[in-house]
Write a structure and sequence with these properties.
Strand order of the largest sheet: 1-2
Number of helices: 6
Number of strands: 4
Order of helices and strands: HHHEEHEEHH
Helix content: 55-70%
Low-confidence stretches: none
Number of domains: 1
Oligomer: single chain
Distance between the termini: 19 Å
Structural class: alpha+beta
Strand content: 15-25%
């Protein structure tokens, strides 16, 4: 496979790629919306635990702790739910004095949406390149092409 030739094609046709990606997202809008709404529904059914953040006893770590406090209230806006309700999961902060970040449902939804958009974008880019060059791209091929394009 001639990566340089494909990279040149991508570089020379960025406007066309952007247009095709936008068209792809527009055409898939209802399906994407349904996937996102289904994900939110899965967060809410069954009604999840409600967690309160409490300051921990550790003087050198300000990350605190999550304490279970019943179930979440369904009497709140979706925005409030996504921004303020913790999932009960944590991830390391890699920041001195702050051991963990606690995930909210909004952060989970953002990650899901980012991955969903990335998958659609890769499918569209793959399709354009495969049709133009009569090749079958692997994920590694696409990585090499994108890396060369961004270099």
């Amino acid at each position: 496979m001639d990566y340089d030739l494909i990279t040149k094609f991508v570089d020379d046709n960025t406007d066309m790629f952007a247009k095709k990606i936008n068209e792809g997202f527009t055409n898939a809008k209802e399906f994407i919306k349904a996937r996102i709404l289904n994900k939110v529904r899965n967060y809410l059914v069954p009604v999840p635990e409600h967690y309160e953040w409490v300051r921990g006893q550790c003087t050198y770590d300000a990350s605190g702790l999550l304490r279970k406090d019943g179930l979440i209230s369904l009497n709140q806006t979706l925005s409030d739910f996504l921004e303020n309700e913790y999932t009960g999961t944590s991830r390391p902060s890699y920041e001195s004095g702050h051991g963990f970040f606690y995930d909210t449902y909004g952060e989970l939804l953002s990650q899901f949406t980012f991955e969903l958009a990335g998958d659609y974008m890769h499918q569209i880019i793959n399709s354009i390149i495969e049709d133009r060059f009569d090749v079958s791209l692997t994920e590694d091929d696409l990585f090499i092409i994108c890396h060369q394009t961004l270099s």
